[in-house]
Amino acid sequence: MASRVIPVDPFDLVIFGGTGDLARRKILPALFRRFVAGQIEGDVRLIGAARSEMDRDGYRTMVRAAIAEFGGEEEGRKKDLAAFLEMLDFVTIDARGTTGWAELAGKMRPGRIQAFYFSVAPVLFGDLAKRLHKHGMANQASRIVVEKPFGRDLETARDLNRVLARHFEERQIYRIDHYLGKETVQNLMAIRFGNVLFEPLWNSQYVDHIQITVAESVGVGGRGDYYDRSGAMRDMVQNHLMQLLCLIAMEPPAKFDPDAVRDEKLKVIRALDPVKATDVVRGQYEAHEDRPDYRTQVDNPDSLTESFVALKVHISNWRWAGTPFYLRTGKRLRERASEIAVVFKDAPHSIFGADAGRHRNILTIRLQPNEGIELGVTIKEPGPGGMRLIDVPLDMTFAEALGPEEADFPDAYERLIMDVIRGNQTLFMRGDEVEAAWAWTDPIIAGWAESGGAPLPYASGSSGPDDALMLMHRDGRRWREIKP
Ligand code: NAP
After folding, report:
1. pTM score, two decimals?
2. With a 6 A CB cut-off, is 20 part of the ligand 1 pocket?
3. What's the CATH architecture for 11-147?
4. Over the stretch 233-245, which tens digit does the pLDDT of each residue have?
5. 240, 288, 314, 359: which one is catalytic?
6. Which residue among 85, 115, 217, 307 is buried most deeply as judged by most CB within 10 Å?
């Protein structure tokens, strides 16, 4: 079954920070892949913009190298690559100065979609918005894409929202959370709201608890300076884990439209209880063999920043009262693995007796690696040995169900950038959502600062600090093993 690709309308896309890490690793390879897929065609212009002195040919050479490294340039695609590079242009521009702005304005073509990707440090977002407006590029056809982090607390997020709102309407602002662009995350909505099977059970009467794990095996790498000022709570929980929590917990929207979905997500965030200090565990990784500890890596011997956090969260509404959500994320953990596990309650009565043991249905949504959905069901162990029960997965690995071609998912950035061009904001965070998430997160971070305590050390390659295990053990539950 070949995938159906509908080309988007012609557009001009400016990538501020077009020479940076994100542009080279994600944005440009994503655009190339959409071009190869036939979704980008015709008269499209992709304009890199940064302070570097570079001409169009220099930029094309840089992008060619980036695609070779990150975009999977295969033999057969060389013709495509030449045509793709033809779409590229470059403007030397200073977000804080006057250089390049008139030239950029001269390159934008009226009457077509105009998108501006802010792939620069967040301190420059306001400068870019202001200058786009001043040079006549903040018009009805234009839209801006804003990268994370969106503020570092409620106050800075509000300020940023205010600055952007001076020149752009909310419908023109696309705040990226690339987790929302993952195929499985959208499938979560399809599974919940496209089937009758799950939704009747999707509440505290049938769900014992829900676990959300986003585990990374790498350390902070070259991002130490940024990370040490941020930490796992700001870098991962406030945005990615909260978004996953919202999608799993929200009420069915009346229709699948941007504001209906985002209204429901916002209600979830607003229904979150404040987190008790005893329900949060933060950790910092230790050295392992030739790999340095966190403090050495960020070059801050006194750092109190967490590279791991686990939380128990309650949602105070009719659907979820009494069902805890356990969230954890961290660096230098055993494996790189992200999943959501919906753990259903025991059957009310076991007709098979105590010997049959305890069996539970678990719906697992794997985000990475190997995106897919798995439903654990209880069956009889084969053989003549009586009625012994075992748990087996009803595996919905997409590659098997759909065929390898259909299951060759686009990268999250491919989908999200195409959504920007199509003008669909469903998978982007609204300003009030971001603010509500910070309003919930801020007191947790403030509590740490007030207590003056340090994060708990944990061994690299482990599952995090022991206290994080205890967070569940004391409730008679356990984390699922972190495995690839
Ligand atoms: P980066 O590698 O440092 O690139 C920054 C880009 O901004 C460069 O192209 C730089 O080029 C340009 N720039 C800097 N100052 C400028 C100015 N005054 N005017 C115009 N351009 C300027 O950063 P990055 O890692 O790509 O990150 C970009 C944004 O994405 C940040 O907001 C970051 O938080 C976010 N993000 C990054 C990642 C990632 O994996 N890298 C992931 C999620 C979010 P010149 O120096 O030539 O001007």
Report:
1. 0.94
2. yes
3. 3-Layer(aba) Sandwich (3.40)
4. 999 999 999 999 9
5. 240
6. 307
